[in-house]
Design goal:
Elements lengths: L5 H6 L1 H4 L5 H10 L1 E5 L5 H11 L3 E5 L24 H12 L4 E5 L8 H6 L3 E4 L4 H13 L3 E8 L2 E7 L7 H4 L12 H4 L5 H18 L8 E6 L4 E6 L21 H4 L10 H4 E2 L1 H7 L7 E5 L3 H6 L6 E2 L2 H4 L11 E5 L4 H12 L3 E5 L2 H8 L8
Parallel strand pairs: 1-2, 1-4, 2-3, 4-5, 9-13, 10-11, 10-12, 12-13
Antiparallel strand pairs: 5-6, 6-7, 7-8
Helix pairs in contact: 4-5, 4-10
Length: 380
């Protein structure tokens, strides 16, 4: 481990006075390599605090650009970064916070083809993803590469933190052996998330990562911490390694990474292609110029969303009411389901198709409609 420079002795003076850290611990932080998957809501506070703490190398995996809707919670980025790569924005911010830290940027989607290489080249991984396929991918890659990873997730007003893949401890599949059906778990864009919540959970992830690097305290191995922001309550659930786990069990059946989108049902084998069940905004705009009543737009969002922004002539039937109101729809018409960004509307399309209706989902939802067809429709 390289010695601390005079400037580093000043920068980390509050750490050096802690017996649990001291100069030796700070040198361990300086030598550490932490991979962060996602420079978004969870990755933002985690990256900031790991850089401030002096973690020598921070790897960031992200392929997205900064969007105005990110700024409510993704504190790595500012208004001036809108439209820029999140990695460029993050590198600039972290470099300003601590020039002593090296940032390795990976502008790519984490996948079965690159996960083991990336996870294996760092000491530990901090998962800041927001979807099940990536969580299973990070967990499996960490177990296969014998690495620990710090898990975090947020939903509306609640968050979770744990440490998976440690020797003798459980992995993510020990907690969730199989993913839930994709239509039962809305994403943050559809369900919402309190902006400060990822800050709380991401910071807790950073704490766990620092403890693991220093070898101090009691990391959340075999414990799932549950935080409820509305009740200001924290509780724990004990977790145990499952001897029958397909990845970390006594006789594992998963010895290489799989297609996690198929595993999680996001792209099920044999499912119709997106082009068969979706319609692009411009195509829908052209179709609407045909005979009156030939195309019916059914908006499956919530009433407050419909009041905020709608496509002219669309009809509101919230998704939760759709199955009970099928009789209100004309079975002779082509029905196009509409939601915010296209997730709920695909599930609604499947409900209608299963009931015998000719139905398609508006690709990208009303958000893409606003961008490509009618800028007068507000975006949110």
């Amino acid at each position: 481990m390289s010695p601390l420079s005079p400037a580093e002795l000043v920068r980390y003076s509050r750490h050096l006075t802690l017996p649990e850290v001291g100069p030796g611990g700070q040198q361990r932080l300086k030598a550490a390599r932490v991979l962060i998957v996602g420079a978004g809501g969870l990755g933002s506070p985690a990256a900031l605090y790991l850089a401030a703490a002096g973690v020598g190398t921070i790897g960031l995996v992200d392929f997205d650009a900064v969007d105005p809707s990110n700024l409510q919670r993704q504190v790595l980025h500012g208004t001036g970064a809108i439209g820029r790569s999140k990695l460029e924005s993050a590198r600039e911010r972290l470099g300003d916070l601590n020039p002593e830290v090296r940032v390795e940027a990976f502008p790519e989607r984490l996948s079965s083809s690159n996960a083991r290489r990336l996870v294996g080249s760092f000491d530990l991984t901090l998962d800041g993803s927001d979807n099940f396929p990536t969580r299973y991918l990070v967990s499996d890659a960490s177990v296969l590469e014998r690495k620990v990873y710090v898990y975090g997730s947020v939903f509306r007003f609640e968050g979770q933190v744990s440490v998976f893949g440690a020797a003798g401890g459980p992995c993510y599949r020990c907690l969730f052996a199989e993913p839930p059906p994709p239509d039962l778990i809305p994403n943050c864009a559809d369900a919402g998330v309190l902006g400060v919540l990822p800050g709380v959970i991401g910071t807790l992830q950073a704490v766990e990562a620092i403890k693991l690097i220093l070898g101090i305290g009691d990391p959340l191995v075999g414990r799932l911490l549950l935080y409820d922001a509305l009740r200001a309550s924290v509780r724990e659930v004990r977790l145990h390694r499952d001897p029958a786990c397909a990845v970390c069990g006594d006789q594992p059946s998963v010895r290489q990474l799989v297609d996690y989108e198929v595993f999680c049902g996001v792209s099920p084998v044999g499912a119709p292609a997106a082009t068969e069940i979706e319609i692009a905004p411009r195509s829908l705009d052209a179709l609407r110029s045909g005979p009156a009543g030939a195309v019916v737009l059914v908006d499956v969002r919530e009433p407050w969303e419909f009041d905020l922004a709608r496509i002219e002539g669309s009809r509101l039937i919230p998704f939760g009411e759709l199955s009970d109101r099928l009789g209100e729809l004309d079975s002779r018409a082509t029905i196009v389901t509409v939601c915010h960004r296209g997730a709920r509307s695909i599930v609604a399309q499947q409900v209608l198709a299963g009931a015998g209706y000719r139905a398609k989902s508006l690709a990208g939802g009303i958000d893409r409609w606003s961008v490509e067809v009618d800028p007068g429709v507000p975006r949110y």
